[in-house]
User: Which sequence fits this backbone?
């Protein structure tokens, strides 16, 4: 049986990009049980309430919902358990310094399989205020409107 190649996205946290200004992203492995991997392979996960934290020199992912595996029995996992993140020691030190600076948090952006291994993309992020969120939406709409105008101009010019 050939190994999986490439990247298969399971879940993305679209709300995080709206709520936070993303500073830097990191790729981390996850310590999972067998039924969690099987549930992820079915494409079932929810990152919207999730967050990461560092405790005792280790990184953890909390409140990420991976539903129970449908064919699992007594070996099934709990859906919102705390999961350990696999990062290099220097990455953990950088993350802890960034968080301790104040105003920053760790949020999961994407959960995916990379060459058959479960990975999570976490970001050092700073919370946006309400007017920043409106400004981001306005910029996106202005850009979309400008592209639409250019498209119609190019059609009429041809």
Assistant:
């Amino acid at each position: 049986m050939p190994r999986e190649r490439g990247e298969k996205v399971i879940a993305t946290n679209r709300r995080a990009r709206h709520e936070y200004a993303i500073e830097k992203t990191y790729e981390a492995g996850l310590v999972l049980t067998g039924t969690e991997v099987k549930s992820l392979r079915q494409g079932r996960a929810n990152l919207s309430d999730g967050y990461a934290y560092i405790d005792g020199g280790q990184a953890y992912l909390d409140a990420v919902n991976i539903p129970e595996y449908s064919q699992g029995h007594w070996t099934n996992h709990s859906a919102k358990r705390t999961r350990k993140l696999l990062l290099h020691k220097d990455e953990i030190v950088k993350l802890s310094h960034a968080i301790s600076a104040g105003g920053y948090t760790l949020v999961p952006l994407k959960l995916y399989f990379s060459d058959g291994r479960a990975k999570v993309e976490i970001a050092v992020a700073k919370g946006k205020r309400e007017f920043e969120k409106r400004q981001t939406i306005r910029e996106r709409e202005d850009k979309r409107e400008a592209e639409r105008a250019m498209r119609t101009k190019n059609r009429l010019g041809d």
